[in-house]
Write a structure and sequence with these properties.
By secondary structure, the protein is of the alpha/beta class. Helix content is 49%, strand content 16%. It is built from eleven helices and nine strands. The chain has helices at 28-43, 65-70, 79-89, 105-108, 139-147, 149-158, 164-170, 179-194, 198-209, 212-230, 233-243; strands at 4-9, 12-17, 49-54, 94-98, 101-103, 115-119, 123-125, 162-163, 175-177. The strands form two sheets. The chain has a six-stranded mixed β-sheet with strand order 1-2-3-4-6-9, with helices on both faces. A three-stranded mixed β-sheet has the order 5-7-8. Helix 5 (139-147) crosses helix 6 and helix 5 crosses helix 10. 42% of the residues are buried.
């Protein structure tokens, strides 16, 4: 079975990260499938919203490090880079249902979501500096905008995990649900969005999100710095330590 699955229900494309044996770690093939299913949904007039979730007890533990290091040339056609800019270019609303760990990209992609729901098991982390790297997905711009520079600095520079209650108090997520209600609630909200007048919904979303050009420029700056950091001695040491665990 594919590590990325989708099904369409009542105008919602439900996309599932389905690699529970690897804590839903994202490899390049999975990034390519995520991008493919989002782009397909964008062009399908029967799809008016997306819902992203992880299979099992984990949203995603982030990148599959070994796979990523084998393909670390972060040009525009790199599957991870294409996925990040696809998130930015979406015109239809994106909802996330988060259970368990949401590490690295698992947290930064939420900054491109319109509605985010989590349960008590959700654990967020932005460990980029811990790996001798820098933030990605526009997080260095979007996170301070969302929760303030002081709190964003704490999360991005210390790189410590935080729970769903903290995420809710910061305004990073919309609501905290019991585990057995998380998916049904997230789907219900997604269906509500899918039933709205689509052009008005997309126009409103565009106005709420603001200047995409600025975000795009920041994402590009992050990628350029990320590529430099990735080749640094300190990053190589951190990744070697990670892979030897």
């Amino acid at each position: 079975m594919s590590n990325i699955q989708f099904q369409d229900e009542q105008g919602v494309r439900i996309i599932t990260i389905n690699r529970p044996d690897k804590r839903n770690a994202l490899n390049l093939e999975m990034y390519a499938r995520l991008t493919e299913y989002l782009i397909q949904g964008e062009s399908d007039n029967g799809i008016n919203a997306f819902l992203l979730k992880g299979e099992g007890d984990c949203f995603t533990s982030g990148n599959d490090v070994a796979d990523f290091l084998k393909n670390s040339d972060l040009g525009p056609n790199h599957p991870t880079v294409r996925f990040l800019f696809t998130l930015l270019d979406l015109t239809k609303p994106l909802v996330a249902a988060v259970a368990g760990p949401a590490v690295g990209i698992g947290t930064t992609l939420l900054l491109h979501c319109d509605l985010i729901y989590a349960d008590n098991t959700a654990k967020f982390q932005l460990p980029f500096v811990n790996l001798a790297l820098v933030p990605e997905a526009g997080a260095s711009l979007l996170l301070p905008r969302l929760i303030g520079q002081t709190k964003a600095s704490e999360l991005l520079l210390l790189g410590e995990a935080f729970d769903a209650h903290s995420a809710l108090s910061m305004g990073l997520i919309n609501d905290l649900l019991p585990s057995d209600e998380l998916m049904s609630h997230a789907l219900s909200q997604s269906i509500k969005l899918a039933k709205k007048p689509p052009q008005a919904l997309r126009a409103s979303r565009r106005l709420i999100r603001g200047d995409s050009k600025l975000i795009r420029e920041q994402m590009q700056k992050e990628l350029e710095e990320f590529a430099v950091r990735l080749q640094s001695d300190e990053a190589k040491a951190q990744f070697n330590a990670f892979l030897s665990r």
